[in-house]
Specification:
- It is built from two helices and no strands.
- It has helices at residues 9-22, 27-69.
């Protein structure tokens, strides 16, 4: 059984307008759409935080390895 929600009049009007624009059959369909979009946004933000964290952890060692490969000695073999 569903749980009752108290929705402000302004919010109900917004949901009704979106319902018409989206061609949704019910108000709850609009709300579910919004929840799916919000959830996707949160997942994306969490993923970006994980990438930033990994970049910070790996960044220094990657730079050190890159510097090892950028020496003039590596070209002496081919000269």
């Amino acid at each position: 059984m569903g749980k009752p929600l108290m929705i402000q009049i302004e919010d109900d009007d917004r949901i009704e307008k979106l319902k018409v624009k989206l061609g949704a059959k019910t108000k709850i369909e609009v709300v579910r759409w919004a929840l799916n979009l919000l959830e996707a946004d949160v997942i994306r933000a969490e993923r970006i935080k994980r990438w930033q964290s990994a970049t910070l952890r790996v960044g220094k060692t990657s730079l050190e390895v890159l510097k090892e490969f950028q020496t003039k000695d590596r070209f002496k073999k081919w000269a």
